[in-house]
Amino acid sequence: MLGLLWEWHQHERINDANRKASDLNASIRDRSSDVERLQQRVDALVLANLAMWTILRDKLNVTDADLERRVQEIDLSDGELDGKVRVGPWNCTACKRPNAPRHAKCLYCGIERAGTSVFPV
Ligand SMILES: [Zn+2]
After folding, report:
1. Cα of 98 to ligand 1 centre, how many Å?
2. Which distant-in-sequence residues (6+ apart) come within 8 Å of 109 by Cβ?
3. How sure is the predictor about 110, in pLDDT bands with cuts at 50, 70 and 90?
4. How far is the CA of 100 from the centre of ligand 1 (A)?
5. What per-residue confidence (pLDDT) applies to 90?
6. Which residues pair with 98 in a beta bridge?
7. How far apart are CA 52 and CA 59, in angstroms?
8. What count of other Cβ atoms lies within 10 Å of the Cβ of residue 11?
9. 50 CA from centroid of ligand 1 (Å)
10. How far are the Cα atoms of 37, 44, 104, 110 from residue 99, in angstroms, in the given order?
11. Cross-strand partners of 105
12. Predicted TM-score (pTM) of this structure
């Protein structure tokens, strides 16, 4: 009898492991298509940026070196040359308390962030 209970218990554990593996496979498939969609968006943005840059370069008579210098200046604006633009915490204009950059309103008093960027991070 004990052997049967043990076997049933092991069978349940195997079924549970199979269900978890199946759920993980579905999750991996979802993440893969998320990555594929993001890659398509990045590709479209790169193409649009390249088109805009070539129009500006031709109309404003600026060079690729000018663009590279500006990219480096902006990259260094947060103190680190790492190919990223980091936005630090912002201080509420009403209560003066710091808020994380992802918040559009002050967590403490609810006042909307002043001077939001056209390039939200
Ligand atoms: Zn506030």
Report:
1. 8
2. 92, 94, 95, 97
3. very high
4. 12
5. 87
6. 91
7. 11
8. 10
9. 40
10. 31, 32, 9, 11
11. 112
12. 0.58
